[in-house]
């Protein structure tokens, strides 16, 4: 990608950041996942005793005799602002479910039994301990989407509009940005992800990688504090992967909080925390160089 494209994207990211929420804390040295006790300011993401069981379908526990059908169980997590976390674990262990809980998609759209609590920037988004979907969520989906944005594993699930530019514009329109600002955002974000020549195209004409780039541009334009990526580079070619690596570094530099589900975790050895999941539980959350390699390369996958 050309440097002028990156510059354009970067200025979009930075201006969005200034406009949106400025109370970020970008000290990598404080970035370990912790239990949140005694913190002087809210964490970006805090989960306490989080458990979730989907209303329908197979879940992790149901395959094992005599166990409840949970997809998440006993999750305690506190992610400081301005950090990069990578979630690692075998297929079906609950990574996507965890991200869905971080955006309120669970329980507001995807239903099931939820226990425990989820807070974004200190504000609760999911009910505490009552086991009923969404009954005590305090922030609406619109408000949550301005705080935390998710790039889903399957980009088709989040592309709704009939042109690329309208799809990127959805986020800034949602936060009622001025028309000139929306235009600038669309131009900069589309340049950043390498789609500047596709603005008037129907998203359905994009390749898989193109859709993934569009989904990323849409989240960038929404300018949330917290950006969540579910296996974001799967459909991308080498230049797309390079774009994504650049993006993460730039987002971290301006103090965004980032959570990435990714199998190629070695690509993210600079992350602040690697979170290891198995059977719906978090079994380790530590900086890469303190993560038990035996666990990571063996037991985790068995
Ligand atoms: N929409 C759904 N409805 C029912 N069960 C689901 C749904 N999504 C995921 N699950 C189940 O929840 C468990 C965790 O899935 P998921 O979070 O997608 O894992 P991962 O992302 O680590 O592969 C799995 O057993 C999966 O079958
Ligand atoms: Mg998944």
- How would you sum up the global shape? globular
The total strand number stands at: 10
**Main sheet overview:** 6 strands, mixed
Oligomerization state? single chain
Q: What structural category do the secondary elements indicate?
A: alpha/beta
CATH class (first level) name: Alpha Beta
Q: What is the H level of CATH, i.e. the homologous superfamily?
A: P-loop containing nucleotide triphosphate hydrolases
Provide the gyration radius in Å: 19 Å
| Low-pLDDT sequence parts | 1-8, 16-32, 34-39, 60-67, 128-137
- Please give the domain count: 1
Helix content: 25-40%
Give, in order, the helices and strands.
HEEEHHEEHEHHHEHEEEH
User: What are the distinct ligands in this entry?
Assistant: adenosine-5'-diphosphate, magnesium ion
CATH architectural category: 3-Layer(aba) Sandwich
**Order of strands in the sheet with most strands:** 6-7-8-3-9-10
N- and C-termini, Cα separation: 39 Å
Percent of residues in beta strands? 15-25%
What value does the average pLDDT take?
A: 83
């Amino acid at each position: 990608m050309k440097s002028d494209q990156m510059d354009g994207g970067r200025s979009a990211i930075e201006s969005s950041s200034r406009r949106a929420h400025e109370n970020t804390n970008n000290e990598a040295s404080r970035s370990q996942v912790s239990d949140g006790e005694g913190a002087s300011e809210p964490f970006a993401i805090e989960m306490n005793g989080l458990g979730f069981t989907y209303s329908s379908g197979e879940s992790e526990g149901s395959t094992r005799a005599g166990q409840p059908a949970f997809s998440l169980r006993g999750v305690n997590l506190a992610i400081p602002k301005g950090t990069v976390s990578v979630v690692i674990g075998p297929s079906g262990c609950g990574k996507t479910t965890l991200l869905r809980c971080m955006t309120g998609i669970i329980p507001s759209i995807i239903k099931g039994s939820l226990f425990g609590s989820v807070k974004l920037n200190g504000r609760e988004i999911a009910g505490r301990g009552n086991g009923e979907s969404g009954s005590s969520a305090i922030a609406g989906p619109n408000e949550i989407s301005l705080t935390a944005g998710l790039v889903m594993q399957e980009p088709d699930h989040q592309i709704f509009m009939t042109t690329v530019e309208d799809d990127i514009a959805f986020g800034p329109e949602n936060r009622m940005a001025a028309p000139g600002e929306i235009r600038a955002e669309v131009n900069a974000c589309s340049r950043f992800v390498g789609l500047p020549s596709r603005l008037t195209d129907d998203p359905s004409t994009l390749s898989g990688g193109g859709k993934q780039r569009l989904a990323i541009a849409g989240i960038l334009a929404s300018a949330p504090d917290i950006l969540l990526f579910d296996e974001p580079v799967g459909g991308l070619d080498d230049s797309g992967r390079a774009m994504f690596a650049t993006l993460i570094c730039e987002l971290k530099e301006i103090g965004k909080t980032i959570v990435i589900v990714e199998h190629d975790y070695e690509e993210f050895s600079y992350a602040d925390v690697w979170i290891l999941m198995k059977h719906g539980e978090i079994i380790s959350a530590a900086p890469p160089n303190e993560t038990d390699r035996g666990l990571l390369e063996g037991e985790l996958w068995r």
